[in-house]
Structures are given as C-alpha cells and as structure tokens.
C-alpha cells in the first residue's frame, strides 16, 4: 500500500491511492495481482472489461470452493471475498447492461458463499416502503434480544458500491456490540427507488424497520455512509433528527459549500474526464453524465443541505472524514459543516495526503469510526 503513488483521478489503467481502484484497495489482499490484472486491460467497454475481471474472480472462487470442501472455512471465506471484490470491479458501475447484470450475479453469488458460515448469520430482509421491499442485509449480535436490546447502525451505500461491498461495515458493527442493516442506495442495487432528494424517505423507512426490531434499542440507532452514502447520511441526519442519534459521514457532496471559480473548473474537468469512460456496450453511452457550471448550479439548488434548510436540525453527534485532495466531494464540505448549524457536536478528521474518502487510511478511520459510533450510542 505504501508504495502506491497518489493522484486524485478516475483513470482505470493505473493503480494508485486516490485513483479509480480506491474503492476496492482495502479489500484486495494481493496488490501485485491487482496491478497485473489491470495491466491486461485493453479497454473499459464490457467486451474488454468484464472477461478480465470475471477470470480473476473465478480463480479465487474456485480456490474457495476447494478450501470449503476441505473444511477450511476461514480461508475459504477470504478467497470468496477476493472473488467478490474482483467481480465487483467487473460490474462497475452497476448492472447497466445484461452483461453487467451477469457479473453482478457472480459478485452476489461469491458474497453469499463468503457469508454462508458467519455466526451470527446474515439475514436477507425486505425493508417495506411505499408498497415495495428494499432487499437488505441484516446482522445482530447473538446475545441481543428483547431483554437486552443493542444499538444499531444503518450502513448507507453509495453510487457504485453496493451492500455486498459493505459487509465489512456490518462486521465492525458487530465487533462493537451493535446490529447492522446494510442497504443499497436509492437508484442502485436492489433498492427500487430512484436517486432523488425525495428518496431520503427510503432511508427513513430503514430507521423505522430497525427501531421495530425487538433486539434493537430504537433510541440508539446511528448511521454510516461513504461517498454518496456520506451525503445521504447527512441528509438523513437533517430530516430525521429524532430517529438517528449519531452519524458518521465519509465524504459527501453537496452540503452547502460553494467552490471557488478555480475549484469549480477543476471539479468540472475531473467529472467530465470520468464521463469519458464507457463501461457498458462499446457503442453505448458513458456511464456518467458530463457536467457544466449551469448543471452544477442546478444540482446545488436541488441537493445542497443548505438549500433544504436542514442544517440547524443536525443536532446529534457527527463525525466527518475525508482526504484533503478529494476531486469528487470537495473538502470544503467538511469545513462548511463545521461553520454552520449547532455550535457543538461535530468532529472531523481530514487526511492531508489522501483523496476521495481517504481509502489510503482505511485501516485507521474504519475501525475508529465504529468505535466512535458505539461510544455515542452507548447508554
């Protein structure tokens, strides 16, 4: 990890901190294998992308099958998780075509294999909302029950990382005596609701589902999210302040911070570079839309927490984390939150030599975040 260079970018042909593979680096055991796999890529369209990552995932899945047959369940789980992660790279940014849906199924299968022997097990549950079910993953400490309810964490996924990629957050919740509900974000995975400001109600439904569990203390529910999930955490904190008692947001945008002219130009340049990559059919559209000053102003008016008028309602303990050189969620969002809303209750950690979500320091902030949530949700 320490030998990787750093550059805030979306170049899928380079493995570096702050770059495209930041999403998965903490989940990869052998970085040399990752770099060797990346070196084999000849393009990002699904015909050139998916077979490379499927082959890598299948090799780990086969090893896991063998280890499971031998009874080495711990080693089998590690292999299945490696398979899941390589399949996850292959499905990026999601099941946007039938081919992508196929490798997404591979990813989910490998994750089920990795989770088959967990104790306590993962429960696949449906969170009801507006006549639909949001398929989610739930775990609770084995000793939790109506006579000894535990705090719980809603793990809020983002734009291109799904609940199968956030199982580690549930593990860390349980390590700290908390239950965890891991849910895909609106517009992704198995969440049937669109990505829209109004879809925060889906997250509120998840809080209500948790509060109704007999083994969960409904007065001690927190939330955690990364990237777009970090935005959703802060939005939820403002609209459901009576239901969520502590929130941890890694990155997130827009909170209300207005970029300088130069910063906005760089943001638009980075966003448009990201939009140049085609991850679906070779003659299909880019996976991400281009942007402009006009589009960013429209998004700000629709999405910024400041424009929603909810800053003063974020009254619970808040932990904010990010890298200083974030090209997707400018670090100014954290400083904006420290400068607005209630005077007390906010904490922040900014990593000076890291990029989006500070994945370079995952081993530092991730366990610390769940210890922090456990403390804030304690009786």
Summed up:
By secondary structure, the protein is of the alpha/beta class. It is built from 13 helices and eight strands.
Which architecture name of the largest domain does CATH use?
A: 3-Layer(aba) Sandwich
- Per DSSP E runs of 2 or more residues, the count of β-strands stands at 8
Count of distinct structural domains: 2
Give the low-confidence spans.
none
Helix content: 40-55%
Contiguous helical run count: 13
Strand portion, in percent? 5-15%
Shape: globular
The average pLDDT value, as a whole number, equals: 96
Query: What oligomeric assembly is this protein in?
Result: single chain
CATH homologous superfamily label of the largest domain: Alpha/Beta hydrolase fold, catalytic domain
CATH class of the largest domain: Alpha Beta
Topology:
Blueprint: H1 22-25, H2 31-39, H3 46-70, H4 73-91, H5 98-115, E1 123-129, E2 132-139, E3 150-156, H6 167-175, E4 179-183, H7 200-211, E5 216-226, H8 228-239, E6 246-250, H9 261-274, H10 293-303, H11 305-308, E7 318-323, H12 332-339, E8 346-351, H13 362-376
Parallel strand pairs: 3-4, 3-5, 5-6, 6-7, 7-8
Antiparallel strand pairs: 1-2, 2-4
Helix pairs in contact: 3-4, 3-5, 4-5
């Amino acid at each position: 990890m320490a030998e990787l260079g750093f550059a805030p970018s979306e170049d899928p042909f380079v493995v570096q901190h702050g770059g495209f593979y930041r999403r998965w680096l903490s989940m990869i055991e052998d970085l040399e294998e990752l770099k060797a796999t990346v070196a084999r890529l000849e393009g990002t369209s699904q015909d050139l992308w998916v077979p490379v990552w499927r082959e890598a995932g299948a090799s780990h899945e086969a090893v896991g099958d063998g280890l499971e047959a031998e009874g080495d369940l711990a080693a089998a789980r590690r292999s299945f998780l490696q398979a899941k992660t390589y399949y996850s790279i292959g499905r990026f940014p999601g099941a946007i075509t039938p081919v992508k849906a196929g490798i997404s199924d591979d990813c989910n299968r490998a994750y089920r294999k990795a989770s088959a022997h967990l104790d306590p097990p993962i429960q696949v549950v449906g969170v009801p909302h507006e006549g639909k079910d949001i398929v989610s993953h739930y775990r609770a400490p084995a000793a939790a029950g109506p006579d000894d309810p535990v705090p719980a964490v809603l793990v809020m996924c983002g734009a291109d990382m799904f609940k199968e990629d956030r199982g580690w957050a549930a593990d860390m919740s349980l390590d700290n005596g908390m239950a965890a509900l891991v849910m895909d974000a609106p517009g992704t995975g198995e969440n049937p609701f669109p990505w829209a400001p109004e879809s925060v109600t889906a997250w509120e439904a998840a809080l209500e589902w948790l509060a109704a569990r007999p083994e969960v203390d409904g007065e001690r529910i927190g939330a955690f999210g990364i990237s777009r999930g970090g935005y959703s955490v802060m939005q939820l904190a403002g609209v459901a302040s009576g239901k969520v008692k502590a929130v941890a947001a890694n990155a997130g945008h827009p909170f209300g911070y207005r970029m300088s002219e130069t910063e906005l130009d760089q943001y638009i340049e980075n966003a448009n570079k990201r939009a140049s990559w085609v991850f679906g059919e070779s003659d299909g559209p880019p996976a991400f839309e281009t942007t402009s000053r006009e589009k960013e102003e429209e998004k700000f008016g629709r999405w910024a927490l400041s424009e929603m008028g909810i800053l003063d309602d974020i009254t619970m303990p808040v932990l904010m984390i990010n890298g200083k050189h974030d090209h997707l969620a400018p670090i100014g969002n954290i400083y904006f939150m420290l400068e607005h809303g209630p005077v007390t209750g906010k904490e922040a950690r900014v990593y000076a030599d890291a990029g989006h979500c500070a994945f370079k320091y995952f081993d530092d902030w991730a366990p610390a975040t769940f210890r922090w949530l456990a403390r804030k949700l304690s009786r």
